[in-house]
Write a structure and sequence with these properties.
CATH class of the largest domain: Mainly Alpha
CATH topology of the largest domain: Alpha-lytic protease prodomain-like
Number of domains: 2
Number of strands: 6
Distance between the termini: 38 Å
Strand order of the largest sheet: 1-2-3
Number of helices: 11
Structural class: alpha/beta
Largest sheet: 3 strands, mixed
Shape: elongated
Helix content: 55-70%
């Protein structure tokens, strides 16, 4: 057991129940309090050394730690608010507030980098010699060690509870390790060569922080916009549903969430049309109940009856699937049925299209109809295009 894990188990009850909102809030509160305390200690030590020995880089690094304490306060508030239960105005809960907290932290990182860059440019244009002292070296080395521990601490908790906010905070701590290392390096080089690098090193660190802030903003905005589900989750749902005897296939899987533990999904399951309606309803009901109990996913299933003992329908489906495979990779069909008439037969089906295919839906439908008609002019298609949320 690592020291971080030991700390977690000491301060957090039922630490293994990470899907429990109360436990998640405890994780977030614990991480935030640790961040506030350690960053305030680092801020005080660096500020004193930076002011005494006239080092802009060390003073800026101290302000960076003060900003980290502010970020931890925002994280603390975010976890507290996201842990509120559902109410009439927010029936899906408040967990997305955690994403907003992560976004605020990301903007703070970007703003800090910009301010540090302005200060560094001023130091480059108007250099002032900084006084070397071994106390500065000791403080910076201790800060690097503390920030490296913070990075691992936040990353461990962030991965444990799947928190984008704490992952962003871990990235910020990693930036601090690099920033403080750069400050220490410039201090040693200036000591050995007499070349004043304080401003230049501060500018390099500022640019790195700004780039990191932009990347974090993009990562934290994604779930707010409605990012697609992880491939691993899609595969897990597919495999689990297919494991139930009686399920012939599935399609139109859509997954969305209202926070790290609020996952909702809808899917169409193909069931033999010959199965008794009560049995098929019982099967669907059991799958939905199992998903909520075992995976915490609120699953709603639409049942599609499929005729298995019609050779003509199976033959036409095989032809249609062959046509789709020739038009573009990744195309698939479902809900296939045939309505026979005197002069022609209607082939009715849905086509699932990957987002990577740039062709418009209307053009694609015309291309499929033309290709199938060329095989047999008496076959006419009625096609619905799906741009699936998650492909099976």
């Amino acid at each position: 057991m690592t020291k971080t894990s030991a700390l977690i188990r000491f301060f957090i009850k039922n630490a293994d129940h990470t899907t429990n909102p109360v436990v998640r809030e405890s994780y977030g509160r614990f991480a935030s309090v640790v961040g506030i305390a350690t960053n305030l200690l680092l801020f005080g030590a660096k500020l004193a050394v930076g002011l005494v020995f006239n080092s802009l880089a060390i003073t800026a690094d101290a302000i960076n730690n003060l900003s980290d304490s502010s970020s931890s306060l925002i994280t603390l508030a975010g976890f507290k608010m996201s842990g509120k239960p559902a109410d009439e105005k927010h029936p899906y809960g408040h967990e997305r507030i955690e994403y907003i907290a992560g976004l605020i932290v990301s903007f703070l990182i970007l703003s800090l980098g910009f301010q540090l860059l302005q200060t560094a440019i001023g130091k480059i244009l108007h250099p002032e010699p900084s006084e070397f002292n071994w106390l500065s070296v000791v403080v910076l080395v201790a800060s690097i060690a503390a920030k490296f521990w913070q990075m691992r601490f936040y990353r461990t908790i962030g991965r444990t509870i799947d928190s984008v906010t704490l992952q962003a905070t871990a990235a910020d701590s990693r930036n601090d390790v690099l920033a403080t290392s750069a400050v220490l390096l410039s201090l040693l080089i200036s000591r050995l060569t007499g070349i004043e690098l304080d401003g230049f090193m501060g500018a390099a660190v500022a640019l790195f922080i700004m780039v990191s802030g932009i990347k974090l903003i993009m990562e934290t905005v994604s779930p707010l916009l409605g990012a697609g589900p992880d491939r691993e989750l899609v595969d897990r749902i597919n495999e689990r549903i297919h494991s139930y005897p009686g399920v012939l296939g599935l399609h139109d899987l859509a997954i969305h969430n209202y926070g790290p533990t609020k996952c909702y999904a809808t899917v169409h399951c193909e069931i033999s049309a010959d199965m008794d309606s009560m049995r098929s309803h019982d099967l669907i009901d059991n799958i939905e109940r199992d998903f909520l109990a075992d995976l915490g996913i609120n699953l709603v299933i639409h049942m599609d009856p499929v005729r298995l003992n019609d050779p003509e329908t199976q033959k036409l489906r095989t032809v249609a699937e062959g046509v789709l495979s020739q038009i573009a990779p990744g195309l698939s069909l479902h809900d296939f049925r045939v309505v026979h008439g005197i002069s022609h037969s209607n082939l009715i089906f849905d086509v699932t299209v990957p987002y990577s295919l740039a062709e418009s839906d209307d053009d694609l439908i015309l291309e499929i109809k033309s290709a199938i008609s060329s095989v047999n002019p008496q076959w006419r298609c009625v096609i619905q295009v799906d741009r699936g949320y998650a492909h099976s």
